[in-house]
Amino acid sequence: MTSPESASPSRPAKAAGFALLGVAAVALIIGVVSLFGGDSDTPPVAGGSSTQPPPQTTSESAAAPTTTASPSAPATTTTVPPTSSAATPPPPVTQPGVAKVPVRVYNNSTITGLAGKASDEVRANGWTVADTGNYSQGTIPTTTVYYRPGTDEEASAKELAAVLRARVEPRFDGIQSAPPGIILIVTNDYQGASKSK
């Protein structure tokens, strides 16, 4: 009579063990799906519907998330959609061939002719100068290159600021309505282009 009682506690332990194995298998599958689905440009969909077009013609990537039988199926790492997808055109921001947008150079310093000097350096480094003058609508704290966000001015402004060792920022309210192009406002701290002499 003691043997049926001792066998009784082992049944819940076996059931709990199988339940834990099932939870572990589901966690493994979710981990694999998030590992392979997390590299794409679109967020992974939990329902298993793949909205991204896989570049392979095999259906292993679609079958892997729904397979719960063997843990060796997710170990096939032949599914690498991001490395071969040609639908992701935005390269890194640092491109060697940035278009050089025309520049307007304004003097906001106490140094006479500083805008002209800065214009010469801007031209010497490959940009065209569309206008030169004074900026007297306020005091700019440091030499700054301004651009309109979301335009080709941004990359060009960042490159020009690096050449001139200046700060770079989006346009502020006082120059929002200025014509298109980069605006360089030079102040007393203007250093010019960094050239080896």
UniProtKB/TrEMBL annotation:
The UniProt record lists the keyword Transmembrane: yes
Annotated TM spans: 15-36
A Pfam family this chain is assigned to: LytR_C
Key words, A-Z: Membrane, Transmembrane, Transmembrane helix
Annotated ranges, domain LytR/CpsA/Psr regulator C-terminal: 101-190
Biased composition (Low complexity): 57-87
Residue segments, region Disordered: 43-100
Name by which UniProt lists this protein: LytR/CpsA/Psr regulator C-terminal domain-containing protein
